[in-house]
Automatic annotation (TrEMBL), chains A, B:
<dbReference type="InterPro" id="IPR008135">
    <property type="entry name" value="Competence-induced_CinA"/>
</dbReference>
<dbReference type="InterPro" id="IPR050101">
    <property type="entry name" value="CinA"/>
</dbReference>
<dbReference type="InterPro" id="IPR008136">
    <property type="entry name" value="CinA_C"/>
</dbReference>
<dbReference type="InterPro" id="IPR036653">
    <property type="entry name" value="CinA-like_C"/>
</dbReference>
<feature type="domain" description="MoaB/Mog">
    <location>
        <begin position="4"/>
        <end position="170"/>
    </location>
</feature>
<dbReference type="Pfam" id="PF02464">
    <property type="entry name" value="CinA"/>
</dbReference>
<dbReference type="Pfam" id="PF18146">
    <property type="entry name" value="CinA_KH"/>
</dbReference>
<dbReference type="InterPro" id="IPR001453">
    <property type="entry name" value="MoaB/Mog_dom"/>
</dbReference>
<protein>
    <recommendedName>
        <fullName>CinA-like protein</fullName>
    </recommendedName>
</protein>
<comment type="similarity">
    <text>Belongs to the CinA family.</text>
</comment>
<dbReference type="Pfam" id="PF00994">
    <property type="entry name" value="MoCF_biosynth"/>
</dbReference>
<dbReference type="InterPro" id="IPR036425">
    <property type="entry name" value="MoaB/Mog-like_dom_sf"/>
</dbReference>
<dbReference type="InterPro" id="IPR041424">
    <property type="entry name" value="CinA_KH"/>
</dbReference>
């Protein structure tokens, strides 16, 4: 089955926004045993939309069209679909009704141009959008089913899960089974890990793929025949063994989500003191519901004054070793743990750049501390002259990994082949 | 002139890597007065490459093909181009010579498979790559010039600047210029704002587009003729006036980036106290270099204990009004400002869900406080039962907007048509 994606919108085409829906969609298909065969991006011009629908529908079986279902004038997808199919737009009464109820519930007045969102090509099948005012729809043109979806990422994702995946499963004539196992790793680069995993003998129908989604690296094991599926668990076990220390979890979760689950399960409490990460460490955990059970507080001590006033870091330490030092990281981790009386205290202090580096402490120098009830562990890493975002994300990841190891009873400081430790 | 882009490679199509070349290229074209009319992404299969070259060359004038020029087996662009054009691959002696010199200079031996990189379709015009081993080339097929470029971003960018831009300038028969203005807004929904902007009369060749990138909404004014470009400033001024209170900045920046710039410029200092945003408010500012100049600290006071210990919120207030109340928000904002002795203190406390709501304070209830040196402003908003991410992001945005207004000398609390204020 040939599945294609058509992304619409000047802002996607003109690069004003990076098209995260497209890469998410391609990954989602892969996870579910399908492959994307082509992606086309066009702007908001009517003739471009019509011609791409007509062209691609001759070759593809299912075409997901993303975007252009909004209430404004430059949202032309429904109209273009109607013209491409040679049918008029008609009001979809069920959706108009649902939309009215939606506005009534949220105490807002439905603007006149929202009614446009209930105008669908005649003969199209409406697809409910439980989280927005743009309904989706599907319509057959030439060889293909065109499935129109909203551009807002969470609405798009919901519709793909609720509707597209069941639909393509039902359309697939000869069922080619696919099963996928995912092993999450941290600290080793793709090429290095891949060459180590070359030594694992794989049965016919089993492939290994990699997806780098910094800071973690996902190892995907695909089984594409019934015989291969029967051997998937055994292979996964072997691969996991070969990965060794870098393995931190199964099933495609981020390191932050993994540590969140571990914290909930273990019943411990934590507090953090953040300098260069500036709240990112706490924020990535607070993204998950239930984080209030373990996260007592995080103190973003961006200035030296804040480090002293809020965390009790001594002036001597700051003067003698500097704000970015293992000594300061130790006092930050210890300070925040004692103030909040938690089981663990985490700290990060570093130079995220692009300015602020020195010969002694260049951009990318980050010190990370973990305080337990008995001990304080610190390490100084040199991430190199990477982007501010990369350095901040990697700093959080190392801190989570130290905590993960400590809770699991391992030594908190590990050797990461892809990262350079100074001391 | 119709300019298209074809991106090749399984890793781009399958979303393993985000295609930054494409968005960079589209932006670069726009900056130089051209528009990208379509972008197609295909994998590494020979038949897909040949068919996309043949298809698109019937419609487009210039097609930039990116990727697939490397030395390995899955780099098929040159071979596919040769087959699509019906010509053989031949050695390009000048490039072979340059490549040999390049390897000699860097003291390395040229691998056998690098010779593949000098095999070009017969009749193609070689394009030198001064920064890598993959030369580019261009060849005419049907209506279009196909221009093949390397996938490595800095090599690609160099070739676009040195070769593609001069080439398309020389090819352009009738100049169709484009200019774009962007106005950033916050607090009003797309449909409502669009219907208000309908009253602005637009000259021929000027269009308005919208891009919702929650929490902000971007209004884009495109001018597509010389006459339209001459009127762009005037139109932009009129649109800005009509937008009114929701306008916060020009040029496609986020609210966080705007407030960051304003804070740097005004020389004030701030501190934050965050509950449900959990460090996000600080983290979004720390993402920008230089934020240390104004951000003293943020205290993520997730637990009641932290609110008392770290911020001095009184037990009475917490007991009487609850952690999510205007009173608590006021004490948090005031507390953090006094502790850090800053010009402004910001606070957010709310229920981000999906659990933790009550009849009285359902999910989406958020109280936001701003303390100046003389006064404390608070508001209680009801965002509705939206996602945790949405509620947290919107909370930060409202806090930034309060601060922005205060620094600009406006009243900090505004009416946001898309948000419901309780008190």
């Amino acid at each position: 089955m040939k599945i294609e994606l058509i992304c619409t919108g000047e802002e996607v085409l003109s690069g004003q926004i990076v098209d995260t829906n497209a890469s998410w969609f391609a990954n989602c298909l892969l996870d579910n045993g399908f492959e994307l065969s082509r992606k086309t991006t066009v702007g908001d011009r009517m003739e471009d939309l019509i011609s791409v629908f007509q062209e691609r529908s001759k070759t593809a079986d299912v075409i997901v069209v993303n975007g252009g279902l909004g209430p404004t004038e430059d949202d032309l997808s429904a109209q273009a679909a109607a013209q491409a199919c040679g049918v008029p737009l008609v009001v979809n009464e069920p959706w108009l009704e649902l939309m009215s109820q939606w506005f009534a519930r949220s105490g807002r007045v439905m603007a006149a141009n929202n009614k446009k969102q209930a105008m669908l090509p005649e003969g199209a099948v409406m697809i409910e959008n439980p989280v927005g005012t743009a309904c989706g729809f599907r319509i057959k043109l030439n060889n293909a089913w065109l499935l129109f979806t909203p551009g807002v990422p969470h609405e798009f994702k919901r519709m793909i899960h609720d509707h597209l995946l069941p639909f393509v499963r039902s359309q697939r004539s000869s069922r080619t089974p696919v099963k996928l196992a995912k092993l999450m790793t941290f600290g080793e680069g793709e090429s290095q890990l891949a060459s180590r995993l070359d030594s694992v003998t794989l049965s016919d129908g089993i492939d290994i793929g990699y997806r780098a989604s910094s800071p973690q690296l996902e190892v995907k094991i695909f089984a594409r025949t019934d015989a291969a599926i029967a051997k998937l668990d055994e292979t996964t076990k072997k691969v996991k063994q070969q990965i060794g220390e870098s393995f931190f979890g199964e099933g495609g979760h981020t390191l932050a989500e993994c540590i969140h689950k571990q914290l909930i399960k273990s019943g411990v409490t934590i507090a953090a003191a953040e300098s260069c990460t500036g709240g990112l460490l706490a924020s990535q955990l607070v993204a998950f519901p239930g984080s209030s059970r373990y996260l007592q507080s995080s103190i973003v001590s961006y200035s030296n004054q804040a480090k002293k006033t809020l965390l009790g870091v001594s002036s001597d330490t700051l003067e003698l070793h500097g704000a970015v030092s293992k000594q300061t990281a130790a006092e930050m981790a210890l300070g925040v743990r004692q103030i909040m009386d938690t089981d663990y205290g985490l700290s990060v202090t570093g130079i995220a750049g692009p300015e602020g580096g020195s010969d002694d402490k260049p951009v990318g120098t980050v010190c990370i501390g973990l305080s337990t009830r008995n001990q304080v562990f610190t390490q100084r890493l040199q991430f190199g002259n990477r982007s501010r975002t990369w350095i901040r994300n990697m700093s959080c990841a190392v801190a989570y990994d130290m905590l993960r190891r400590a809770i699991a009873g391992q030594f908190p400081i590990a050797d990461y082949p892809m990262l350079k430790r100074i001391s």
